[in-house]
Amino acid sequence: MTMMNDKNSLWWQKAVVYQVYPQSFKDSNNDGIGDLNGIIEKLPYLKKLGIDVIWLNPIYVSPQVDNGYDIADYYQINPDYGTLSDFEQLIQQAHSLNLKIILDLVVNHTSDQHEWFKASKKSRDNKYSDYYIWKDPSHDGSLPNDWGATFGGPAWTYVPERKQYYLHSFAPQQPELNWENPALRQDIYKMMRYWLDFGVDGFRMDVISLISKRQDFPNANGRFPYSKSYYAGASNGPRVHEFLQEMNREVLSNFDTLTVGETPNTNADQAILYTDSNRHELNMVFNFDHMHIDYSERGKFDVTRFQLTDLKRVFTQWQNKLSDHGWNSLYWSNHDQPRAVTRFGSEKYRVESAKSLATVLHMLKGTPYIFQGEEIGMTNAKFDSLTDYQDIETKNIINLYKEEGLDESFIKRVAYLRSRDNARTPMPWQNEKPYAGFSQNKPWIKMNPNYDTINVAQALMDTDSVFYHYQRLIALRHEYPVVINGKYHLYDPNDNNIYAFSRESTDGIKLFVIASFSEEKLTYQLPKVITNDNWRVLLNSYDNAFIIQDVISLEPYQSVILINR
Ligand code: GLC
Ligand code: CA
C-alpha cells in the first residue's frame, strides 16, 4: 500500500531524510554517549530544519566492535541509548511532529555474540547450524577461498568445534548470515514485522546487495582489491532480487514504508533492478560511484582529490538511467564517509561551499539525505594524534600503513581526509566548553576541535548560515513539484569548475541550477533559452544582486537557482 501525494509523487519521493548517528547526536544523561532521549530533546530542531524522515543508525544491543553494525539482539535497544519505552516515546513524539523514523536493518551479518551464532558454532546439527555460512577447509587444510574482509585479513575464520570456517565480509566478529536458509529468512521477516508494528516507518538496509552468495564461492583471483574480494561471489548475487521480492511480499507490501538499500558494488543498471517499482523490491538505493571518484591505486585511504567533471559524469549517469524507472537517493556524506565540505568543497570557503553542495544535492532528482552536522557545515575532525581514532577500519589501516613503513605525517593526512571518524564526532550544539553542549561528560569520541566556531547555536543566530540555506532548499522541494519530478539535463559536461543543470517538468516549469566549485571568481555563459523576461532567481546562496544576463559572474562557490515562471 502506498500513499499518493500531489502530482503523483509518493511521500518518500517528496521527503528529505536526516541521518542521526545516535551515539554522537545528543547525550541526555551525561554519560558521554548520545541517546534516544537526547534525540527526543532535539526533535524541534529537526522540525525547524524542515526534514521529513529520520534515519537512525543501529540502536540495538551490540558489543560495538563496528559501532552497532554487529548486532547481538535484534529486539533489544542498546542500554547506552535507552529503553524500549524511550524508543516508543521517540516514535510518538516524532509522529506528533509529522516526522517519520526509519531504522537501520543489518541482516547480512550479526554479531558473533548473537544467540544464533553462539548456537551455530557449537555443532553441525542444531537448529541454528545453517544460519551462517560454514565451509570445510580446502583439501590442503587452507582457507575455503581467497576472499579478504573489508577491515583487513581473510574473510574466513576457523572454529575448532565445527572444524570449519565461517564467512565474514567485515570484521571476524560479524559472521555472515546464510540467506539460502528459509528459516533464517523467516526469522528476519518476523523481526522486520515486529519493528513496523512497533511504529517505525521503514528501513535503511545495510549492505543489502551482499546477502545472496554465489554457491560455488569462486576465487577472486585479483579481480577486486583483496579487502573487497568477497565481491567476487557476494555482491548482486544470484538470488538477491528473489530474496528482496520475497521480503517485499512477506513484509513490506503490508506497510507504508520508506526503504533504502545500501548497495556497494552496484552500478546504475543494477540499481534499476532494485528500485523499479514494478519489481516490488526497494524504493531506492545508495549509489557508491561518486564515493569512488577520489580513490587511487591505494583505494580509499589516500590523499587524492576528486575532479568535478568526474562527479558530474557519475551523477548524470545515475540521473539519466533512473529517470523513468527506479529512484535515486542523494547524499554527500554519512557515517562511513568524510565530511562533505572537506571532501567536495573547501574549508577556506566553508560556508559558501557547504551551500553550493547543498544546492546541487537538493535540486537533483531523488530523495536527499542529510548527515547530521552537514546542515551547519561541519568539517573533518583534525585529531591531534593517531591514537584519537576509534574506528576499526581506521585503526587497521593505520597499523597496515605503519607496517608498510609509510610516513607518520602521510598517515595522519590520510586519516584526516578519509577516516570514518571524521563524520562521527559529537554534534556541537553550542560554543560551550568543554563538550559543546553535547554532554557534560567526556564523549566516547573526541569533539571536533573547531566547535567554538562551528556549532548549532551560531548557525541558528546567523540568518546567512548554512542551516538556513538547507531550510530554504528543503522548503523549495516541498513547494515545487518540478524539484521532485522534473527531467534532468546536464550543461557543459567538460567544465571543471561549474556544475550547471536544468530540471523540467511536463507542464513546462523549468529550473536552471548553477553551482560554482571554485575558490576563484568566475564568469559563465548562460544558455540562450534563459532570458531576462520570464526567468527569475529562486535562490541565491550569496547575499548579492544576481543579474540574469548573457554572461553572469559568480563569486567563489556561489550557487543560484533560476526558474522560468
Ligand atoms: C555498512 C555500514 C558500515 C558498516 C558495514 C558493515 O557499510 O554503513 O558502517 O561498517 O556496513 O556492517
Ligand atoms: Ca547518554
Low-confidence stretches: 1-6
Rounded to an integer in angstroms, the radius of gyration calculated over CA atoms is 24 Å
Count of DSSP-assigned helices:
17
**Span from first to last CA?**
35 Å
Tally of distinct domains: 2
Largest sheet, in brief, is: 8 strands, parallel
CATH architecture annotation name of the largest domain: Alpha-Beta Barrel
Strand content: 15-25%
- The number of E-state strands comes to 20
Overall pLDDT metric: 97
TL;DR of this structure?
The chain is an alpha/beta fold and 565 residues long.
Secondary-structure blueprint:
Blueprint: H1 11-14, E1 17-20, H2 36-41, H3 43-49, E2 53-56, E3 60-61, E4 73-77, H4 84-96, E5 100-105, H5 115-120, E6 134-135, E7 156-159, E8 164-167, H6 182-198, E9 202-205, H7 231-234, H8 240-250, E10 258-262, H9 268-275, E11 284-286, H10 308-321, E12 329-331, H11 340-344, H12 350-363, E13 367-371, H13 392-403, H14 408-418, H15 456-461, H16 466-479, H17 481-485, E14 487-491, E15 498-504, E16 510-516, E17 522-525, E18 536-540, E19 551-554, E20 559-563
Parallel strand pairs: 1-2, 1-13, 2-5, 5-9, 9-10, 10-11, 12-13
Antiparallel strand pairs: 3-4, 6-8, 7-8, 14-15, 15-16, 16-20, 17-19, 18-20
Helix pairs in contact: 12-16
Bound molecules: alpha-D-glucopyranose (GLC) and calcium ion.
The site of calcium ion has 6 residues, from loops.
